Amino acid sequence: MAKEALVSFAVERIGDMLIQEASFFKGVRGQVDRLHKDLRAMQCFLEEADKKQEEDSRVRNWVYEIREAVYDVEDIIDMFILNAQSLRTHSFPERAFKKLTNRYKVGKKVEAIQLGLQDISNRREALGIKNIGEGTSTSRSTQMLQNLRRSTPHAEEHVVVGLENEAYKLVNQLIGRDQRRRVISLVGMGGICKTTLSKKVYNHTQVVECFPDYRAWAYVSQDCRPRDVYMQIIKQICSSTKEQVEMAEKLQEHELGDFLHGHLKDNRYLIVLDDVWSPADWSCLAKKSSNDPDCLGSVFPDGGKCNRILITTRYKEVASHADAFLDIDAESYLPDLKELGENMVDKCNGLPLAIVLLGGLLSKNMSHIEWKKVHDNMSAYLAKEGQIAGVMTMMNLSYIDLPSYLKPCFLHLSLFPEDYVISTRKLLLLWISEGFVLQQDRQSMKDTAEIYLNELINRNLIQVVRTSVNARVMECRVHDFIQELAIEKAEEHNFIGTNIVVDPHLFPSSSPSLFSSKSRRQSIYSDFERYASIEHYSTPYLRSLLYFNLGGICRISQLDFITKCFKVLRVQDLEGLGIENVPSIIGELIHLRYLGLRHTGLKMLPLSIGNLRNLQTLDINNLKRVPDVIWKITNMRYIYIEEQEEDDPLKIDTVQNLQILSGITFNQWIRNNSSKLTCLEKLKIEGRCELVEEVEFSNSIAKLHSSLKSLYLKASDESSIPSLAMSSCPHLCKLDIKGRMQKLTETFKFPRNLSQLTLEACRLECDPMPILEKLPNLLTLRLRAGSYLGKEMHVSADGFPRLQILQLLRFKELVWLNILKGAMPWLMQLEFDNFKTEIFGLNELLNLVEVKIPFSSLLAMILFHKIEDSFWGLTRIAGAEGGMHICRQKGLTLASSKQALEQLADFLEQCSRLNFV
Questions:
Q1: pLDDT value for 1
Q2: Is the CB of residue 539 less than 8 Å from the CB of residue 565?
Q3: Cα-flanking dihedrals φ and ψ of residue 466, to 5°?
Q4: SS3 letters across 164-182
Q5: How far apart are the C-alpha atoms of 223 and 280, rounded to whole Å?
Q6: What DSSP letter does each residue of 95-156 carry, written as one string?
Q7: What are the φ and ψ backbone dihedral angles of 97, each rounded to 5 degrees?
Q8: Residue 7 host element (H or E)
Q9: Which residues of the chain have pLDDT under 50?
Q10: Any bridge partners for residue 521, and if so which?
Q11: Which of 105, 469, 512, 736 has its CB 3.0 to 4.6 Å from that of 758, i.e. a possible disulfide?
């Protein structure tokens, strides 16, 4: 459905342009309107066609022709608007003549496209393509993929080195002493050997001894059919006779659930449900019975006999419905291979299925020479042997299952370099600028884009690299094999041109253009100067141009060629490219929606950026000054202009669609009428503020009462943050303050709905806890260097009723934190970095399950191992600062929780005595 989705987005955009740019279409409006209606009508057939295109090349060509026709219409309209805009500077006679000429040309092009669409439509019935709803059968190609995926517990498996640790954990989960029925989920991306690990555990000696009679394996699949799953289980449990199986086959689905429930009720059982695709499938499988009075509507009874259900799934949303889950990722696998073998395993990036296929290839010839050949060109060798197809086929199943609105977002990942760490902030804004994000009622497009991102993460198509303290994804990356799939699909759909790693030997300046005239997006991974020297006039309809600095210094003296060659560009991101200046002709890119110039060293922007009337995102930092023309760009939604060197006036209160404003100075802010910014949700104000009048500033924030959700105040030098009463901002849930403050009691009135608070460099002399602990909805509190200068902190018995995360970083003077019994009843995560601070009351925080501490010395590890096997687990924190991440086991009883906290308190006390800092 990617083609159908891409066409839908394009058709919707054409409709938007007809509304927004109505003044340009006089004389051709009727023709373009009819063409738009024809395209919308053909959308009804695209979903059905998309199901058939994998197995019928004629249908595939039919969809291709529709997509190309839509792209042609989009190109014609964009160029027509561009030409009409350029005529505004011409004399009246010349303008009138060229308008007539342009309309005539557009009319002829539209007529040609309509004739083509008529021919495409006439061939639809001959290809058997029905309207949506008339044909909903699963395509043969999808069914073949599912058959290939189908598993049994006894099928022969290749040996995969490196699963021992995961198998050990899983076996312990299954044979544990917990009397309750437990649902354990094994989650990971396609091809990462969840099924292999499950088989290894299913047939493990200890597991077989623990579940000698009632042990069954059922394959669920994307096409979940509860009746088939129940029959698979019934045929395997040893007490089911032939007669009982025959009787079961005659039962209705809900009766079959009751039948299975009756056989399992008084017995200890293990059921493996392999390849569950959605929470709805799991709920459907589990609730077809109504016989269990203790667990209403459950096919799989509790019974208090240590019963276990093991689910394998690609989706974390499914895993969240389990009692516990084991998340397999690339970092879990450390195969014991040497030299070339280790390097090749690294290239597999932890994907065991790829390692298995690679091992099969290498086992044919054990010589170093042959291994070296495979090492130097792994993908080519696997493809030659037909092995890579197995990996890509498994990945393809996840792609086919994507809903249409996610497919363009997935294809967009093909633009990023291999193993590149992607800023999610930038990724979401790029998706919005591309038009991939649908507007939802009462929800910002950025919030919708974040939902899309999380869904791709839950489907294990994107890997999380870094999260914020409140678990929002900050950075991500794409697995190598997933990216290969994205590139393959993107090129197939003409979504991207060639992703370019410019090499002077491959791309001499005299080379002709290597890019298709239909290329819509391009990425440059290296020498931008050489890319600029290549002929680009064959790609006039390029919509997105992204640059990635993969190391070294790259500078460009001129960017004129971008405006001259790519006149309908929508997205231009040159982050990390050294730029001397931006030409004034950039103002001619009237279709530009995203302009990214962060970390370019650029100090000035031309006044002509005020002509970019469709610009939605401006992302730049360290400018000497921001030109006072942003007020002209009324479509702007996201402005990032941090760390301005000068504090010149900047008018922004005419930009009424503005949702994010980051980097405006205090003096610039108070000169605007903030009451006009009715959509502003996120605001960051920085710079000097000693001349700012407090009442005026407080009132300017209060005027954002209907929209403001996040506020960041950062004072430079020794100036103090102006006091303000924020109680009038009921939607404000996140507040960051960096800079000197007065006493909290006298100056600040926090909003009741505040859920996240960060204080840094505030230099408070009085304990802030008596004030902060009264915030009824505070979930995250981060107190950082210089926020408090005292030596003691006290939290009263009723303090912080909902706090879940507490961070105390770089507190050099704090020696005592006293938490009275009853305080912080829901605290789950504690992070601190000073062992000179004694924490009293730690053993009363019964919900504390995570502790982050700064050191990772050998002695600390030895101390920790004394408690590790009982209630706690340990992982190292990656990065320059390092540290330890201590996690408590889930599902502990109240008594065990208290014992675990006593062990933790004892461990931290020993660390404090040994002076770990």
A1: 43
A2: yes
A3: -150, 140
A4: HHHHHHHHHHHHCCCCCCE
A5: 12
A6: HHHHHHHHHHHHHHHHHHHHHHHHHHHHTTGGGTPPPTTT--PPPHHHHHHHHHH---TTS-
A7: -65, -45
A8: helix 2-20
A9: 1-3, 22, 132-138, 140-141, 144-145, 147-149, 155-162, 290, 292-296, 324-337, 356-357, 360-361, 363-367, 381-382, 384-387, 502-514, 879-880, 917
A10: 544
A11: 736
First-to-last alpha carbon distance for the chain, in angstroms, is 55
Which of 150, 24, 11, 23 lies closest to 69 in space, CA to CA?
11
Instruction: Give every strand in the sheet of 473-477, ordered side by side.
Output: 422-423, 473-477, 463-467
CB atoms within 10 A of CB 74: 19
> What is the spatial distance between Cα 51 and Cα 47, in angstroms, rounded to a whole number?
7
**Of 95, 31, 43, 98, which is closest to residue 67 (Cα–Cα)?**
43
- Rounded to whole angstroms, the Cα distance separating 840 from 822 reads 13
Give the rounded distance of the alpha carbon of 433 from its chain centre: 16
Tokens of 367: 């010589």
Please, are residues 282 and 318 in contact by the beta-carbon 8 Å criterion?
yes
Given a contact cutoff of 8 angstroms between Cβ atoms, the answer to whether 210 and 174 are in contact is yes
Distances (CA, A) of 17 to 41, 224, 617: 18, 42, 19
At a CB cut-off of 8 Å and minimum separation 6, what does 41 contact? Answer: none
DSSP 268: -
Residue type at 847? N
Helix (H) or strand (E) holding 310: strand 308-313
Which tokens hold the place of 617? 């995102």
Question: Is the distance from CB of 297 to CB of 290 less than 8 angstroms?
Answer: yes
Q: Give the whole-angstrom CA distance, residue 36 versus residue 534.
A: 36
At residue 778, the pLDDT reads: 95
Residue 795 has what pLDDT?
A: 96
Nearest-10 crossing angle of helices 57-86, 29-52 = 150
- Determine the pLDDT at residue 553: 67
pLDDT one-digit tens code per residue, 899-916? 888 888 888 777 777 655
CB of 688 closer than 8 Å to CB of 666: yes
Three-class HEC string of 408-452: HHHHHHHHCCCCCCEEHHHHHHHHHHHCCCCCECCECHHHHHHHH
Q: For Cα atoms 175, 178, 184, give the angle at the middle one, nearest 5 degrees.
A: 65
Question: If we measure between CA atoms, which residue out of 324, 332, 320, 313 comes closest to residue 173?
Answer: 324
Side chain identity at residue 773, one-letter code: E
Angle at 236 between CA 233 and CA 242, to 5 degrees: 105
Asked if 585 contacts 563 with a C-beta cutoff of 8 angstroms, the reply is yes
Rounded CA-CA distance 692/672 in Å is 13
Answer left, alpha or beta for residue 221, where phi above 0 means left and psi between -120 and 50 means alpha: left
Does residue 573 sit in helix, strand or coil?
Answer: strand
**Helix count and strand count (H, E) for the chain:** 30, 30
In angstroms, rounded to a whole number, what is the distance separating the alpha carbons of residues 892 and 907? 19
d(CA 170, CA 204): 11
Residues 295-316 pLDDT 10s = 445 788 877 788 888 888 877 7
Amino acid occupying residue 101: T
Of 432, 430, 448, 452, which Cα lies nearest the Cα of 440?
448
**DSSP bridge partners of 545:** 522, 572
